[in-house]
Write a structure and sequence with these properties.
Keywords: Metal-binding. With 317 residues, the chain is of the alpha/beta class. The chain has two domains: 146 residues, Udp-n-acetylmuramoylalanyl-d-glutamate--2,6- Diaminopimelate Ligase, Chain: A, domain 1; 147 residues, NIF3 (NGG1p interacting factor 3)-like (Udp-n-acetylmuramoylalanyl-d-glutamate--2,6- Diaminopimelate Ligase, Chain: A, domain 1). It is 31% helix and 22% strand.
Length: 317
């Protein structure tokens, strides 16, 4: 067997991600997905382990290096625009140089993960519609909501098996839901203490939670694609001041969670299990093809970053 130049475990993780969320699903008009850093393979130097994160910050890189991870799956691409140089003065470039030196590769799925069926935006649909357990864990508070869900912008020429993929989602409830119940579902499912809410100024604050919602536009991260959508509620990570004003002036409501909070919970709640199962299959396939070194264990670990977090927090005196 030829000596591998790319960590066999990292190769298995990348193969698993590409099967779960093919890069062809990404919005190539602006996005940069795929294997962004292919670090040289140093046998025995790193563990068969991967770290999931939304943002690849210096703190996350420190965490991966300390854990001796072979690869980082960073939802947001750390390389987003063409690079003319790699220098220590730029913090992101410095992080890339350090990871390359340590042998840690980087893969980004970004909008491919958004678009796929059972991906990020479909997860946000479940945040609006899933059952909400009560504190005792034995009974249920808010019951499952019957609804219809559709894709806002389908992916053109999607690969076989992913024909239903697309960007954004529209949810239509069979029975109108109150805004208060929707907020309770979102904060529970995303494990947030609060969200930002905008409502039409003609509605008194004390009546805000009783607003009836029949339809919701959903977009993880930045929700600009929801502008002008004929729905009662926009649910996204962030919306600009003027976009939010335009929405409430038209009688709509807005819920934002901070950009990456609409994405981060998905890593632990869904992607961890998905990637563990898919990577196990890839490892077995590499073994059958003779592309897995006999001296390597087939055991591995995949974890969500403990240091990754949204840069914004709500601070109160």
């Amino acid at each position: 067997m030829a000596k591998p130049t790319f960590s066999p475990f990292s190769q298995a993780v990348v193969g698993a991600m590409r099967k779960l969320y093919p890069e062809k699903l990404a919005d190539s008009s602006f996005d940069n997905t795929g294997l962004l850093l292919e670090a040289p393979y140093r046998p025995g130097h790193l563990q068969n382990s991967a770290l999931l994160t939304v943002d690849l910050t210096r703190a996350v890189a420190d965490e991966a290096i300390a854990r001796k991870d072979s690869i980082i799956i960073a939802y947001h691409p750390i390389i987003f625009r063409p690079l003319k140089a790699l220098t220590q003065s730029n913090t992101q470039q410095s992080t890339l140089l350090r990871l390359a030196q340590e042998g840690v590769s980087v893969y980004s799925p970004h909008t491919a993960l958004d678009a796929a069926e059972n991906g990020l935006n479909d997860f946000l649909v479940t945040c609006l519609t899933a059952e909400k357990p009560t504190a005792d864990g034995n009974s249920t508070g808010l019951s499952k909501v019957h609804h219809d869900s559709s894709v806002l912008t389908p992916v053109k020429d999607a690969p076989q098996g992913f024909e239903s993929a697309g960007y954004g989602r529209i949810v239509r409830f069979h029975t109108p839901q109150t805004l208060g119940d929707i907020i309770a579902r979102i904060t529970f499912q995303l494990k947030l203490s609060c969200v930002s809410v905008a409502t039409p100024q003609s509605i008194p604050t004390e009546k805000r939670n009783q607003i009836k919602i029949s339809s919701v536009g959903i977009c993880a991260g930045s929700g600009s694609m929801l502008n002008g959508l004929d729905v009662d509620l926009l649910f996204t990570g962030e919306l600009s001041h003027h976009e939010a004003l335009a929405a409430i002036e038209k009688g709509k409501c807005v819920i934002t969670t901070f950009h990456s909070n609409s994405e981060r919970r998905f890593l632990e709640a869904r992607l961890l299990d998905q990637l563990n199962a898919a990577t196990k299959e890839e490892v077995e396939e590499l073994g059958k093809k003779g592309q897995w070194e006999e001296s390597l264990t087939k055991d591995f670990t995949i974890a969500a970053s403990k240091t990754d977090r949204d840069p914004f927090v709500v601070a109160m005196n």
